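Subject: sequence -> structure tokens, single chain

Hey, anyone have a minute? Need the predicted structure for the following. Not urgent.
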Amino acid sequence: MFTQLAILDLSTPSLLIILAIVVLLFGAKKLPELSRSLGESARELRKGLSSEEESKNKQSEDKKNNNQG
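Reply:
Had a minute. Here:
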């Protein structure tokens, strides 16, 4: 996780400023709902990417088996 933040080159004060802006924009009551929906979106994205990767692997295995048989 820290390597991802290093790529963005965000320091702790920068992250605190961004968090303060988010709290001001959305309000403290909306933050749990916002983070929950963001987490669900990330989960669905990962699930979609992994299923796509599995289907590619299956297709390559099928091609390999067809070429051998």
